[in-house]
Amino acid sequence: MKKRMFRLFLIALTIPTFTYSQSETLFEDFNNNDNKWDVGDKDGKKSRIEGGYYYIENNDEEYADRFVRELRVDANENYTIEAKMKQVGGPTNYGYGIMLGFYTWDDYARVMIAGSGHISARSKYMKKVEYELEWQKDENGIIKGTGEWNTLKIEKSSSGTRLYVNDELMQEIPNMKYVGYKLGFMLNAGQSVVVDWIKVTRKKQTMTVAQDATKGELENLGPNINSKHIEKSPNISADGKTLYFTISDNPEKNIGDQGKSDVAFSKLQADGTWGPMQILGEPINNASHNYIVSISPDENSALFGNVYKDDGTMTSGISYGVKRNGQWQRPKKVTVKNYKNDNEYSDYWLAPDGLKLISACENSKSYGEKDLFVSFLQDDGTWSEPENMGPNVNTWAGEFTPYIAADGVTMFFSSYGHEGYGSADVFMSKRLDETWTNWSKPVNCGPVINSPNWDAYFRIDAQGMYGYMVSTGDKSLGEEDIFRIKLGEGVKPELLNLISGKVYNAKTNEVIEAAIEYEDLSDGKKLGIAYSTEDNGFKIILPKGKRYGFLASAEGFISVSNNLDLTELKEYGEKEVNLYLVPIESGQTLTLNNLFFDSRMAVIKKESFSELNRLVKIMKENPDLNIEIGGHTDNVGDEDYNMDLSNRRAKAVYDYLVGRGVDKDRVTPKGYGEAKPIEKNDTPEGKQKNRRVELTIK
Q1: Mind listing the pLDDT tens digit for each residue in 395-404?
Q2: Sign of the alpha-carbon dihedral angle for 374, 377, 382, 385
Q3: Separation of alpha carbons 653 and 655, rounded Å
Q4: Other Cβ atoms within 10 Å of 157 Cβ, number
Q5: Average pLDDT for residues 193-214, to the nearest whole number?
Q6: What is the pLDDT of residue 658?
Q7: Where are the alpha helices (DSSP H) in 434-546?
Q8: pLDDT score, position 258
Q9: 21 pLDDT exceeds 60?
Q10: Dist CA 249 CA 256 (whole Å)
Q11: Domains along the sequence of the chain with CATH
């Protein structure tokens, strides 16, 4: 295990003033900088660790500054933070002290003392001052001046927070609310301080690590993708052959000004390496900030960051873009009901079924900083009001970069609140029901995927062979880089089939564009949507455990449905399945593939209801449409019995349609028995195809 942020000093420590049920004390004596405190000389801040002390200077003439490192201290739990320090320079009428829960200058908490003999406390939450203790004068000379050591202690319990200086109780204040994950020191303008040590006692953090998470080490994807600048937000296509990502601050590649971002992609080469980076052209990339959020399994659609306005400028939000005939169209604004985010940053992910949108945002429904929320696609193309995904996933700190794997059950995300190896880590959780708000307890993805540095944007190809992510650290070519890791069984999603194909006009055999939909045959529930283009066709992902029906649809056509039974799927598979659309014209015939009967019976099974309900809808939308329902059998058994069975099955479909409002004069049932086979009856497969019900347009 990698070295923790602080040295473990004592476990299950009992504090005299109040009790932790189970705690740990972390002690930093600054004998080295293994814990990566803020050191260096930049922008008026100077800091170094030397001789067992932390020397910090704020040379700014006007503003305060912080000197922090990442350490999780949950504002909702009991804790004690204590530090020994002394002011060695600068004005004494300004304060210095402990910064805890720092996220930004809009979200933090701090307790400060001044050499003039004063103490104060303050917390900001969601840009508003949540609590403030104005400067209070120490009348007893407890707070020492310049050159003398002071020990400042913050002790939080369920009843309130106590502030001590040099072991003397100075103030009792309400508990301060904060959501940040950085802890350290704050200096006002012009001050210099020396810190001897800092000690943190907090609720003991437990970490459950995924077993058999990885095989081998993280692999930097190399200079064709990564640079000394920023590469992030990797999106691997379902087949693993195209990587989409975002580049930032790259003056050689970015279209916009320095500091802007653009969407790029790379193709997997025959030798297993990634080809040179290519930048998407207009309208996806322009002079503003452009970035990819998620790509659909067939690469025919994607979510992009920001909203593309008609005048070519951008505003905040997200957009949905489609690719037609090989060209990306200008993305359109995504509308989410009552969406609110008080955080500077946001993250999204569109689930592979196209029906659920995951967002990471901070608002009144958050448990702390950014939480993960789910929205559902509505019939009008908008998204429902975000619902918090629950306390198993979300914490008092920040959760971000969500990713729903191809199975629709496994979620990866990054978090500062769950216990990890240093900074933000990648975690995995499994969806437990259809509410999308009930998830298993997250597990840390282990010390290969995670590091002491910032780890995020974890993505997986549909096969579950490789994980792609963003990390910083020694293996990076510059700042944030994209890496790949071979996955073990411990973090692989559920098995699935990747179905690809094109849609054809059944009459002309021409390739046509069409919407794709797939459903659970057991209850008719729609499970996902896609779109098939003339050049790229479609790809849909069907996880194991269900019998699926899938079909194409387009105006002026009737769908020829297909089905696939994956209840006993044993391994990942890829199948090519072309779909057909029959034009609504006299003489056209199609097989109702998703119409099911029990063997040798004429009772319609419930798995057929979706197929027949679609037919009812088509009949009502096309009042001049008249059809024949033809029943057919194989040649097994008595010919008269087969004729009777085919008649009864055709009549069962007729009764279903008429019973749901279709005029009986528009539907003619007819049984053909074994008279019109479409295959030879000498194989089980041929017999199965001959057992069918057909629809013929009159």
Answers
A1: 999 999 999 9
A2: negative
A3: 5
A4: 17
A5: 94
A6: 97
A7: 446-449
A8: 65
A9: no
A10: 9
A11: 7-203 (2.60.120.200), 214-491 (2.115.10.20), 495-583 (2.60.40.10), 587-698 (3.30.1330.60)
